[in-house]
Amino acid sequence: MANARDRIRMTDDEIARFLDETHTLHVASINPDGTPHLVPMWFMRDGADIWFWTYGKSQKVMNLRRDPRITVMAEEGEQYGDLHGLTVRGRAEIVEDEDRVLEFGMRSFPKYFGAAPDAEARMRQMGAKRVLVIVHPETIASWDHRKL
Question: If we measure between CA atoms, which residue out of 96, 101, 98 comes closest to residue 65?
Answer without folding.
Answer: 96
